[in-house]
């Protein structure tokens, strides 16, 4: 399973009942004075692995790491790539070598300076760790070395223009400390150079950090942050309403009509694309006309407005609008059930059963409702669709481990780096979602890695056009992410779904 999908999957894991029960005893520190402000966030899950930034790549874990550690680059709330530990970066002519200049005023929380050697060590440690989730980011990385006190050079095994976006995901650790403690020891006593430092972690309950007094950047207004693990969506919502939580992710149906004194809903278009995957290797789905009929039979706009109560954007691209590679004003397929029926007749479709697999709950909110709506659209044009709901873990195993989807399946991709390379590589260039193995699609995926700017967008546009024509993957929509937030907190939800606490301010 790729790193991006690992992050999405961990957001659905169940947690212990004890975490929910503790909510009643938690106080919302956002209402405290400026000197003691504690922010309590209701987090959906915690890392499956020990929370070590070298080994773990979960969404839950990255909420810790983005606040305790520095990365070379960072993404703004709207997805713009900006400096962090690196002050500048430049490629060679063919994007096979990248040079990063490192700031010289950053210190780890133990007082040691952050060096180019620590940066090189971090990446090399991941490369040498076969069980690291982050290894999924290193596909193109051949070697990395410190070439000067403030310079790190990355050598890639192929041209890769989006390499700087990859560096947003890798947290820099001190070589001396990590080598002494090892993975498990470092997770229990992490040392980073970010705006917060580790205080405590109780598995199944919470992860706590406090403001770093020696942080090189602007001091955060939050003095302490508690990531409270709360798997139940009703418990998260009730926690914000009661004041035991300050911020929490909620579902679209909870956001609709929300009205509670002391709290409000903040929403934004997310970084994911929900799509219909297709096993086109056998049966009627091997026929392009049947696949095209399926794409024409689904009314994405109605799906969003009626099933999701408007909490999303119809999107037949596999890349969300907030992600690099999304093509504005791209040609799309129209909702045309009459044409869909005509294509099925041309294909000689005769009522053969098509299995549609989906998770009854998990990574896609209201997934059962979405699946039933899609079944209705497809039945309306004469397709025989059999729903096969299962748990998220089973579906993920089918998609990413055994790679044996029976026919259609409901899936999503949300790249944490906010770059389209990872989803299109997986969907069209030999990944687990790529049943078609279309050489023309793979060629376009590889091309976008070798160019930048308008040329790169043109490659993505050509790939989208090919996919609309062949219906290898059927894009559906990009969901919103909805949060309940206590009044007095100034916070803008991020496109990548992470919590960057240093950006949060409070009403005076």
From TrEMBL:
Name under which the protein is recorded: ABC transporter substrate-binding protein
UniProt xrefs under Pfam families: SBP_bac_5
Recorded GO CC terms: ATP-binding cassette (ABC) transporter complex; periplasmic space
Keyword Metal-binding on entry: no
A GO molecular-function descriptor: peptide transmembrane transporter activity
Keyword list, A-Z: Signal
Signal peptide: 1-30
Organism the protein comes from: Mycetocola tolaasinivorans
InterPro entries xrefs: Peptide/Ni-bd, SBP_5, SBP_5_dom
Stretches assigned to the Solute-binding protein family domain: 80-433
GO-annotated biological processes: peptide transport
């Amino acid at each position: 399973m790729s790193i991006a999908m690992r992050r999405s999957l961990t957001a659905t894991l169940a947690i212990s009942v004890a975490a929910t029960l503790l909510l009643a005893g938690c106080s919302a520190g956002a209402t405290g004075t400026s000197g003691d402000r504690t922010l309590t966030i209701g987090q959906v899950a915690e890392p499956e692995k020990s929370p070590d930034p070298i080994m773990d790549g979960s969404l839950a874990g990255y909420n810790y790491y983005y606040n305790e550690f520095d990365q070379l680059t960072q993404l703004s709330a709207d997805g713009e790539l900006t400096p962090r530990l690196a002050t500048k970066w430049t490629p060679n002519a063919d994007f096979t070598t990248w040079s990063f200049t490192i700031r010289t005023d950053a210190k780890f929380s133990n007082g040691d300076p952050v060096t180019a050697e620590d940066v090189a060590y971090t990446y090399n440690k991941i490369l040498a760790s076969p069980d690291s989730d982050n290894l999924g980011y290193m596909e193109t990385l051949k070697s990395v070395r410190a070439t000067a006190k403030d310079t790190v050079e990355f050598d890639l095994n192929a041209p890769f223009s989006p390499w700087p976006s990859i560096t947003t995901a890798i947290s820099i650790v001190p070589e001396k400390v990590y080598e002494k403690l090892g993975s498990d020891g470092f997770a229990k006593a992490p040392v980073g150079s970010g705006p917060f430092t580790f205080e405590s972690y109780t598995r199944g309950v919470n992860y706590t950090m406090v403001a770093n007094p020696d942080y090189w950047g602007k001091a955060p207004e939050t003095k302490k942050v508690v990531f409270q693990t709360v798997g139940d969506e009703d418990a998260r919502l009730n926690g914000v309403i009661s004041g035991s939580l300050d911020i929490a992710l909620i579902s679209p149906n909870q956001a609709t009509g929300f009205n509670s004194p002391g709290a409000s809903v903040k929403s934004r278009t997310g970084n994911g694309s929900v799509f219909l995957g297709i096993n086109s290797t056998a049966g009627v789905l091997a026929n392009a006309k049947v696949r095209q009929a399926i794409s024409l039979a689904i009314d994405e706009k109605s799906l969003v407005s009626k099933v999701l109560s408007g909490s999303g954007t119809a999107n037949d691209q596999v890349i969300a609008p907030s992600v690099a590679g999304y093509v504005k004003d791209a040609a799309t397929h129209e909702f045309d059930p009459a044409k869909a029926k005509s294509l099925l007749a041309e294909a000689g479709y005769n009522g053969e059963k098509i299995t549609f697999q989906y998770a009854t709950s998990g990574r896609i909110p209201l997934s059962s409702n979405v699946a039933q709506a899609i079944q209705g659209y497809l039945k309306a044009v004469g397709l025989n669709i059999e729903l096969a709901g299962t748990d998220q873990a089973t579906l993920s195993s089918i998609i990413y481990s055994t790679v044996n989807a029976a026919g259609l399946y409901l899936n999503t991709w949300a790249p944490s780096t906010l770059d389209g390379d990872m989803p299109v590589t997986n969907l069209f260039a030999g990944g687990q979602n790529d049943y078609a193995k279309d050489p023309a699609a793979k060629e376009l995926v590889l091309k976008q890695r070798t160019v930048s700017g308008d040329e790169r967008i043109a490659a993505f546009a050509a790939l989208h056009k090919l996919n609309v024509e062949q219906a290898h993957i059927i894009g559906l929509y990009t969901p919103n992410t909805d949060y309940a937030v206590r009044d007095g907190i100034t916070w803008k939800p991020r496109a990548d779904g992470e919590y960057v606490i240093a950006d949060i301010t409070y009403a005076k």
